[in-house]
Structure formats: structure tokens, C-alpha cells
Amino acid sequence: xxxxxxxxxxxxxxxxxxxxxxxxxxxxxxxxxxxxxxxxxxxxxxxxxxxxxxxxxxxxxxxxxxxxxxxxxxxxxxxxxxxxxxxxxxxxxxxxxxxxxxxxxxxxxxxxxxxxxxxxxxxxxxxx
Amino acid sequence: xxxxxxxxxxxxxxxxxxxxxxxxxxxxxxxxxxxxxxxxxxxxxxxxxxxxxxxxxxxxxxxxxxxxxxxxxxxxxxxxxxxxxxxxxxxxxxxxxxxxxxxxxxxxxxxxxxxxxxxxxxxxxxxxxxxxxxxxxxxxxxxxxxxxxxxxxxxxxxxxxxxxxxxxxxxxxxxxxxxxxxxxxxxxxxxxxxxxxxxxxxxxxxxxxxxxxxxxxxxxxxxxxxxxxxxxxxxxxxxxxxxxxxxxxxxxxxxxxxxxxxxxxxxxxxxxxxxxxxxxxxxxxxxxxxxxxxxxxxxxxxxxxxxxxxxxxxxxxxxxxxxxxxxxxxxxxxxxxxxxxxxxxxxxxxxxxxxxxxxxxxx
Lengths: 128, 363
Description:
By secondary structure, chain A is an alpha+beta fold. Chain A has four helices and nine strands; from the N terminus they run βββαβββββααβα. Chain B contains eight helices and 19 strands. Chain B has a six-stranded mixed sheet with strand order 10-11-12-9-3-13. Chain B is globular, with a radius of gyration of 20 Å. Chains A and B meet through β4 and β6 of A and α2 and α7 of B.
């Protein structure tokens, strides 16, 4: 359930690094906890973001949850498909449900994030 | 935490369980949207055993209810059912309830889970002023199911000898369903054709299993509290604790239809009638967002830069695919068609006051 090769943030976002670009989404655990996603408030392309900052919101039938970025940089793209199909976040959180792409100013920030095994342990700790 | 007799069934079906009013209840089984759509298009099966159930029997039962409830209880015929408010002396709403008259001197009250104990105590206290009425808590020995949706009659008909074609909205009957004796009413909290079953707790599992099994053919889905909330919101039905409480009156909560102003006496009458004549300073309205977003309980409402009210219920409407909500606004802003702004975490999202229900069948 937790793909290898991605990096994970304590607020349940994942990052896939492609050179200086980071693709960001929310994890399976996050989408499952939220329930059916019905709307996403996304940042503007070109916006500057800092690591730890709230960059958007995911609205589900249950609640509202903030999306945080664990890396700094500039928003390169937002997933336009989510406007009509927010359910992609539930159906394919690590693929078609990606949320934003960020041009990173400090790619080394990615290394500070958890890998799949660490994130798995983190979830287990939270469950206990 | 209390559990309904169907707790193990919910776990078996993989429900997400959440605490609600002191109960461990299913939030959803397969997803709120899927369950919502099943109820609108086929059948949803809900365990609502967390609600309060109270029997009132005796020749003074109708006198007691007539004094306690805002509705015209004396006009209720055997087999009838009324929506009513229970108010305190200040006109504040203690609960909204359903009253069933299932015998000459036998009434049944269904109260909200969060108010079950309060209403039981209130009725018991008020009963002291009457001779010839007995108030009995049935919340634990009876379970309660809601079978809701356009196919619910098709599902229920083969299971009972009761003439469901003739059972009108807000009517009840003592009958058997799947061989189990129970009180059955045509009622619900979804806006769909539907039934509520009040049955012995120790038979709840048998009936649940038969409904699940037979329901497969008509597209039944077990449904949790999540879609119960989106379904009731689309109908504009207020939820106690969100849209009304002891600090709001029936006039403010736009529930005048549940008040019989011609009745000589009921608790809270003076304040409510005075407010009807003089007008209330705030009123509960329904609104739709004019752009994407989801209003939530607690968001502030603005007009021309001034705070004019607060959202008490809000969500995404699965049927209409837009944000809808209810809230209290100053009365001058309560007119249908008026534009207001909902402060969604710092963004002023335009909305328009609309009539309820939000969702109209076939449109």
C-alpha cells in the first residue's frame, strides 16, 4: 500500500522527485481517512511556497483538510483534472490523483522526508 | 460508549465506526457518495437504534403530549404521526421529535440520540402534573432501522402483510416484518419514500440480515451517518445541535409549520406567539454557493463587509454537485434570492439564499 521510491511527510503528503521537480499528492492513508473527496482548493501556478506551508485544501463529504508542502519552491502545475474528477484522489492517490508539481529551490529538502518503510512505521505508531 | 444490537454486523461489513452522541455508530461502509446515491436511486438501509424511543400510555397520554409538544396532538388519529418540537418555557427548542399514535391511549415518541435522556426526563417530570399516563424508556429494548429510497416499498412488500400501498406518509402500523412483530412507520430523514422499523433489539440482527439479503436485488446498500447527514441537508431538514438548540426558538429556526398557534396551551407558547407577532431578529435560511467550495458549520456570513450571521450546517451536495448550507442571518437578509458571502477560511465565497428543499426530485 505504501509505494517505494516516494518520500513521505508527517502530514500524509507524498513527494516524487524528478530532478528539481517535486510531484506532490496525499497518501492512501490520508484519502482513506478523509473519505470521498468532493473538491480541492489548489494554489495558483507560479506561486512561491515555503516548506511547511499550507498550499491548498481537500474537501471531503466528511471534513476539510489542509495540504502542506514539505518542500520550498514555485508551483509549476496543478492537476487540472481534479476540478472535474476530485474522486481521482481516492481512486489513485499515488498516480492520477497527484495534486501539484513544484519547482524546488532546495531539492535536498526531499532527503529529510520519510521513505516508505519509515512512513509505514510512522503509521503503525499512530495506530497504537 | 453504547453499541446498538447491530454493532457486530457493521464491523463485519467493514464500516468505519465513529463516536456519535455517546454511541459507536457506522459513519460509512463503502463511501458516503455511493451510499447517498443508493438511497436516492434504490434503497439505503440505516441502523438508527441510537435514537431515543419512549412509550406513553394511558388516558392522559394525549394531554401530556399536547402540553409538551408544539404540534396539534389532539388532532392525531390512531395510525397517525406528527413532527413536533418540544420547547422550554422560554420557547427554546429542547428537541424535535416524531410522535406516533398507534393505539387509542398509546403513543410513541422518537427523540434525537443526543437528547434522548433529556427528553425522557422532561416527559417524566411533566407527567407528574397528569394522572393516568405512564412514560417508559424503550431505547434499549427496541432497535430502529430506516429503509429509505424509491425501491424501499418493493423490498418491504413481500416481507409484511401490512398494506404498504395504503400506508401514507407519516402514518404507522403495528405489524410483522419478516415474522418479527414491530411498529412500522412510513417516514424518514432522507426525503425519499421510506419506512422506519421499531423492533425488539434481540430480533434486530435477523431483520437486518433479511433486508441485506433481499435488498441485493433492488440495489440496497447499508448506509451510515455520513450520508444520513448529506441526505437530510439536501432536503433542508434541520439537525438538532447544529441548526437548532435551546437558544433558538421555532420562529428563528423557520419551524413555524410544526407549531399549532391555535392551541390554547403548550410549554413555551407565550414567547413563541409574541415572537411570531413581533418578528425575530434572526432566521434560519438555506443557501447555495455560486462558485465551487464547501461551506461548513461555524463559517461566518457577511454582506457588504458586515458580519450578518453564521453557518450551522454545510456540505457538498452529492445530488446537485455544489456547496449548500443552512445558517442564521439577520432577518433583513433572509429573503430568497438575496446574495450573501460565506467566509470560507478567509475567502469570501458568494452565495444566494434559496428555498428549501435544496434537492427536488426529478429536477
